[in-house]
Amino acid sequence: MSPLARTAQVPAATDPSLIRNFCIIAHIDHGKSTLADRMLQSTGVVSSRDMKAQYLDRMDIERERGITIKSQAVRMPWEVDGVTYALNMIDTPGHVDFTYEVSRSLAACEGAILLVDAAQGIEAQTLANLYLAIESDLNIIPVLNKIDLPNAQPEKYALELANLIGCEVEDVLKVSGKTGEGVEDLLDEVIKQLPAPKGVADAPARAMIFDSVYDTYRGVVTYVRVVDGMLRPRERIQMMSTGTTHELLEIGVSAPNPVPSKGLGVGEVGYLITGVKDVRQSKVGDTITNSIKPATESLGGYEDPKPMVFSGLYPMDGSDYPALRDALDKLQLNDAALVYEPETSVALGFGFRVGFLGLLHLEITRERLEAEFNLDLISTAPNVVYEVMREDKVMITVTNPSEFPEGKILEVHEPLVSATILAPAEFIGSVMELCQGRRGTLRGMDYLSEERVEMRYTLPLAEIVFDFFDHLKSRTRGYASLDWKADGQQIADLVKVDILLQGEQVDAFSAITHRDKAYAYGVMMTGKLRELIPRQQFEVPIQAAIGSRIIARESIRAIRKDVLAKCYGGDISRKRKLLEKQKAGKKRMKMVGRVEVPQEAFIAALSTGEEKKK
Questions:
Q1: Contact of 225 with 208, CB cutoff 8 Å
Q2: Of the segments 14-18, 47-51, 307-311, 349-353, which one has the largest average pLDDT value?
Q3: Are 554 and 500 in contact (CB under 8 A)?
């Protein structure tokens, strides 16, 4: 292969038979981004001088944490037998919270590279992503990565992978994303094994939006996969779900920086810029067509991801509320799973109730809001969605403890998840003990090999939201992996625990928990607040209550002035009179005094990081 072929210019509006669309799917930390880096170098679209690790991870937060959060599309030229092909690669996230990003990427591809770490083998998210790819009817290329590691066992895991997919052991490719070994052979196999995209070139244009980002200077940048027809610059396009029309100012491909082209044809992946500033007009999953000669049927969109965890986000400074609203608007554009609605709290003021896919999604979103939009935020303890039936048979959806109805309740439905845990066989006992302690039910168990076991559990979502994964990792010395998906509801004995300060309820500290764990939550929260709230001039009781029944109590002792300091010697009755006067003053103060909880106490008591450590 000539060196010129590697730096061949990216062709515009390519013949569909010369296009290959594929994505890389794997468990978190199995080397997707590193392999993508080597592909960019091998194809010559990024020079060695410009190369940096995790090249496609554009966000600061991705580079800090070493994880991929956003899928990134890039177009690469590759020559085989004198013919230059255009490879559209999408690098996807690996964490369970970002599965919706993977599903969107799969819809834009004909094939997937299933990547497995040669030192760790198949993990839970590997299976989950493989099933997603099979459901999308994609061709799958099995690849073992990190074969250069001293503890790699390529032969053992190649057999495991071959048994899983149903191919021969020889068909499993072996590469090293770090050294580049086997990457060129893999690119040849992508062209050989994956089909070219199919579509009707002379039909009305149809393109699916699989991602969008907001650019401060250019407005909304929309990433599309063209299925039929052709899109050209300066023509008017129409969004099929909303019917809105826009002029197409620029169209092009990511290679990996934006390269404007004269149009995108069948099977091509690229970006569009219409100059639209309103983020709601470019909905992920929508179909774009030509407004003069529109298509009649839209392409199948994506299922909207359903939020699993809800948390309140409040600005530290109340005047930042409009800025927070604008920031959430912009973030929602390139994070389709984010849903939010305004809410108010007596303690925290105006804020938003935000829905997330999991705890990592919550952490990442909050960090992005703080870093990208320069906001200081408080987040309340995460909650899941409950269905509560009152005595009058009215069903109420509860996303916030303050919405939990008072009075008699017939039943409470809580969400369940179907969890898959992969772990070494020696840890079966400790994993079972953890799951049973979290009200889990074992549904089945299979041995993938002599040393590795797959366990399937049904667990309440509320039990795995906080620190389940941390405990699972510590009990299995870091070897276990977890994947889960929503799996219906069950009736459970759940109660709302209120925290009272001076007899007044503080809504931000309320929680919905199982009756067996309510006492532990009450003791933990009252103890924490006793340390955090400063002492007052009068004694302050902190109580945890279920309804009208107090289940835990702590007291903050009063600050007392020594009124007897100037009484040396003299009659005891004088001292008693001063003490009685002080006592009466304290009593009066207790009746009219209010306890102001400082902002620092809210932050410390509600921060999820503290919650997990406790």
A1: yes
A2: 349-353
A3: no
d(CA 420, CA 126): 11
Classified by CATH at the fold level, domain 3-193 comes out as Rossmann fold (3.40.50)
Tell me if 291 sits within 8 A of 242, measured CB to CB: no
Please report, for residues 28, 97, 363, 380, 604, the alpha-carbon distance to residue 609 in angstroms, rounded to integers and kept in the order given.
21, 18, 9, 11, 9
Range ranked top by mean pLDDT from 104-108, 167-171, 510-514: 510-514
- Phi and psi at 252, nearest 5°, equal -175, -170
Are both 3-193 and 387-492 of the same fold?
A: no
Task: Classify domain 387-492 by CATH number.
Answer: 3.30.70.240
For the annotated binding site for GTP, the residues are 29-34, 145-148
All structural domains of the chain with their residue ranges:
3-193, 206-290, 309-382, 387-492, 521-613
* Binding-site residue ranges: 29-34, 145-148
Find, among 351, 212, 361, the residue nearest to 280 by Cα.
212
177-222: per-residue pLDDT in tens?
Answer: 778 788 888 888 888 888 888 877 788 888 888 777 777 777 788 8
Burial of 517 (0-12, 13-18, 19+ CB in 10 A): middle
| pTM reported for the whole predicted model | 0.65
DSSP letter assigned to residue 150: T
The pLDDT tens digits for 487-536 are 888 888 888 888 888 777 877 778 888 888 888 888 888 888 888 887 77
Q: Give the integer Cα–Cα distance in Å for 518 and 546.
A: 8
Domain 206-290 fold is: Elongation Factor Tu (Ef-tu); domain 3 (2.40.30)
Distance CA 76, CA 22 (A): 11
CB atoms within 10 A of CB 595: 17
pLDDT of residue 94: 55
How far is Cα 74 from Cα 52, in angstroms, rounded to an integer?
Answer: 16
Q: Report the C-alpha gap between 409 and 565 in whole angstroms.
A: 57
C-alpha angle with apex 536: 530 to 542, nearest 5 degrees? 35
Name every residue whose Cβ is closer than 8 Å to that of residue 244 and which is 6 or more positions away in sequence.
238, 281
Measured between alpha carbons, how far is residue 61 from residues 326, 356, 363, 370, 580 in Å? 20, 18, 11, 11, 60
